[in-house]
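Data deposition worksheet. Section B asks for the primary sequence of the deposited chain exactly as it was used as input, without tags or linkers unless they were present during the calculation. Section C holds the resulting structure in token form. Section D is free text for depositor observations; keep each observation to a single sentence. Incomplete worksheets are returned to the depositor.
Section A, Depositor: J.P.
Section B:
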Amino acid sequence: KEIGLYAKEQGVTKIFATGNEVAHTIEAFGAGGEIFAEKEALVAALKAQLQSTHIILIKGSRSARMERVVQALQEPQQTDKRGG
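Section C:
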């Protein structure tokens, strides 16, 4: 809970999180906080909103395997190359 309040006080505008343990953090953060059930949904949301001027922090225990989120964000965006 304290992390959410602290982040808001420091000017953080969004917190995206995954997992059951973060509900209190997101609730304390308020508007701009989102919880995702799966890492894939988290990655999709980040890719949809991420801009070159954004600074992101990816944090989690080793067992959470958050390096997979980092790797997914480093992959080039897929574009639809079908004609139209």
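Section D:
The longest strand covers residues 15-18.
The chain has a mean pLDDT of 88.
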